[in-house]
Amino acid sequence: MAIDSTVMHNFHFGVGFLKSLLEGIDDAKMAHQPRPGMNHPAWITGHLVTAMEFTAKLAGGSYKAPEGWSDLFGTNSTPSDDASKYPDKAALLAELDKAVAAVAPSLESVEPEALSAQMPDEGFRKIMPTVGDGLTFLMNGHIAMHVGQLSAWRRACGMPPLF
Amino acid sequence: MSNVIEGLLFSWEKNLGYGQRLVADLTDEQMVVQPGPGTGVNHPAWVLSHLNAYHPVIEHVIKGELFDDPVNHRFGMKSKPEADRSIYASKDELVADFVSGHERVEQALRGADDSLWGQPLKLERWLKFMPTAGIALPYLMLVHENTHFGQLSAWRRVQGLTSV
Questions:
Q1: I need a surface site. Which of A2, A36, A79, A92 has the fewest CB within 10 A?
Q2: Percentage helix, strand, coil for chain A under 3-state DSSP, each rounded to 5
Q3: Could you tell me the residue ranges of all domains in chain A?
Q4: Structural domains of chain B sorted by starting position, each given as residue range(s) with its CATH number in brackets
């Protein structure tokens, strides 16, 4: 069974959910931290875009996030409330669309056999032994977890839940 | 076992550990904390109660069985987190239910094969947006659970607790 008829649907759902949660958030609020240390919308969006690089690599495709984004949004980065450090909301959303458009065709064409291949990155192999483990996590679990952080960020800012 | 099932089980097992770590250092009293106005984040007691309500649903989806609509569950999506501690089971009970629910789902999925993915759901209301088990299971096991884990992760930051 290919990945396109299972986790692919939920990949697009997760990206759509992220965009829905971003609606109604002003540019000026994108780097706001209602409590110190909270991941804010700019960081969450940029972080999920940079994760598409690794997703593309695992799926046999190619996508490269803009220069400097891995420092700003990578796993070891720390969100700052200084909005001037981040691209504006329009740029973040445009790059998100670009990344999804670049990655999706590769994901749709991943052969089932490729999923059992060993994780190419040695560091990640310790926590995600196969390509299938990595793709399933990145396409569904990882996106959803940060979407949940954004959902909680909205509540902490006094915004209503989406549903 | 198919590669997709293995991938799902891999992330499911990670969720089992992550869910427990998110509440490991909390007291029973902290489980229902929603500090101050403007921070109506879902609290840990509600999140675990809510997720635990879905474990039997996931089992029924895997087995192709009819199940009660979780929207009507006491801790379903229409419910609101309450500050009254007595509404919820103790932290230890919630965690124990979370663990056993995860184990039952894992056991059911380990016995399945790829024919599962095209299996239609038996809940009429869900057919419009999740017509098959192939779409419902990654949603219920990964997207739904991790979205609520993300809320817990942010709740911890609101409390000034460390990230997990």
A1: A36
A2: 65, 0, 35
A3: 3-109+131-156
A4: 3-158 (1.20.120.450)
Give the pTM.
0.94
Lowest-confidence range among B35-39, B42-46, B99-103?
B35-39
Q: How far is A4 from chain B (nearest CA, A)?
A: 10
Nearest neighbour of A148 by CB, restricted to B7, B77, B149: B149
Checking ipTM against 0.90, whether it exceeds it is: yes
Find the closest chain B residue to A15 by CA distance. Answer: B143
User: Measured between beta carbons, which residues in chain B are less than 8 angstroms from residue A135?
Assistant: 7
Contact call for B139 and A35, based on CB within 8 A = no
Fold entry, domain A3-109+131-156: Four Helix Bundle (Hemerythrin (Met), subunit A) (1.20.120)
- Contact between chains at A130 and B6 (C-beta distance less than 8 A): yes
Record: contact B160-A35, CB cut-off 8 A: yes
Phi and psi at residue B31, in whole multiples of 5°? -60, -20
Return the closest-CA partner of residue B150 out of B164, B135, B136, B160: B164
Question: For residues B128 and B126, what is the distance between their CA atoms, to the nearest angstrom?
Answer: 6
